[in-house]
Amino acid sequence: MKLKNGAEYMESLRKIKPSVYYKGEKILDVTRHPATAPHVRAAAMTYALASDEEYRDLATATSHLTGRTISRFTHVHQNVEDLIKKVKLLRVLGQKTGTCFQRCVGFDGINSVYSVTYEMDKKNGSDYFERFKDWLVHIQDENFMVVGAMTDPKGDRSKGPADQPDPDQYVHIVDRSSDGIVIRGAKLHMTGGVNSHEILVMPTTTMDEQAKDYAVTCAIPVDAPGITMIFGRQTSDDRRDKLERIDTGKPAFGAVGGEALIAFEDVFVPKERIFMDGETDFTNSLVYRFAAHHRANYGACKTGLMDVLTGAVTYLAQAQGTAGASHVKDKITEMIHLSETLYCSSIACSAEGFPTESGAFMVDTMLANVCKQNVTRFHFEVARLALDLAGGFIATLPSQYDLESEDVGHLVKKYFSGVEGIPTEHRIKIARLIEAMTGGTALVESMHGAGSPQAQRIMILREGDLGKKIKLAKALLGIPQEN
Ligand code: SF4
Ligand code: FE
Q1: What is the CATH number of the domain that holds 324?
Q2: Nearest Cα to Cα of residue 72 among 57, 60, 80
Q3: CA atoms of 310 and 333, how far apart (whole Å)
Q4: pTM for the structure as a whole
Q5: How many domains does the chain have?
Q6: Which one in 85, 379, 405, 452 has a CA-CA gap of 20 to 30 Å to 445?
Q7: Parts of the chain with a pLDDT under 50
Q8: What is the per-residue pLDDT for 76?
Q9: Which ligand is located closest to the Cα atom of residue 147?
Q10: Which of 90, 97, 301, 305 has most ligand 1 atoms within 8 Å of CB, for mutation?
Q11: Which atom of ligand 1 lies nearest, measured to the CA of 101?
Q12: pLDDT in tens, 316-337
């Protein structure tokens, strides 16, 4: 595990030169640019915990491929315990960063591609699994961050990949040779893209026979020729005009993951980095497994965020003198209840994990979908309660520039104060944190990250086995099963 801590991770990013744009200009160093640096620091926490005695057991694992100690984010789950450790790790990271630390997408991609390539080779006699393992050992030994790249732009949603007026709306192969392939297209909303080392490209949906060129899985370094990234705007990102500003809410870490459009303009991928080329019949398993793994995470990382939010609101109530009110206590109780309920579903889908043919463990897919569906409700309810308790002043607060102004700073301090003994600046900081965690991009991510709510409902209905449930009802009443 070459990169041993956050500082080494950041140093490694300075050595690669991906083409990254933000607001029309090129970012030369993502570790220092105010728009991207907070996200880099959040991802760096995944490296930091691996070297922290307290968290080493959660943050590292033993590679089943080499026997060496690796980051858990590059590990293939070998048992239920691994799945549960992942959940616990994600909650801790959510608590420590208060945001998305991004590295789980590649982690879930690794686990999905591992089991699917094994099954592809078993059926077709291909050698994707061996290639993938070679690449994975490289990732594990270097301790690289991988961006799992699944979501295509999709253009006209009423048409499939092969029927689009613009064929580039889905990533596809435009050329093949004995050495490799050339791909074109784009992936959207790529969490951690600008601060990863490698991209793991996967198909975004089930492909039919006509879409053979779209059934492609491969790994590419982020700075390969032909790759361009455009970093997305986030709510209030102009408040990051300088580093470490109170007004951003979370000065050290970003409001949300830090997403980018990644464009592939005729990118060459050598043969040894191709893990699917035209096997449309395996696209469904890959998408399904990736989605389930990622949806399982949300009851963990978001619970960590909700822990922070609950703590922030409780402290704010203390600072405002409202902490003793019974309705305040009741609302805080409800926030805790919802957070822990959400966590239960992440633990449950992991505890019900099972081995795939490759030996890699999968989460229970029904429970993972239920978990993510609940995020789209509980996180919002927790945010609503936080805003209710915080009060309207979080929407009208003057800026840090006014707080520090020689002319008006004394007025801000005087009239935004709370109980004696708690500095006004603390109250303002907490208010900004609550503002950042309850609005804009942060909640959009909770709604649509790991798939929009409707995507989970489709899978919940598909796996709900209504036929069996009808039989149960009939059996109870003595109604013949054939009627
Ligand atoms: Fe990980 Fe959560 Fe961010 Fe997804 S949203 S990458 S699971 S921290
Ligand atoms: Fe996400």
Answers
A1: 1.20.140.10
A2: 60
A3: 9
A4: 0.96
A5: 1
A6: 85
A7: none
A8: 98
A9: 1
A10: 301
A11: 8
A12: 999 999 999 999 999 999 999 9
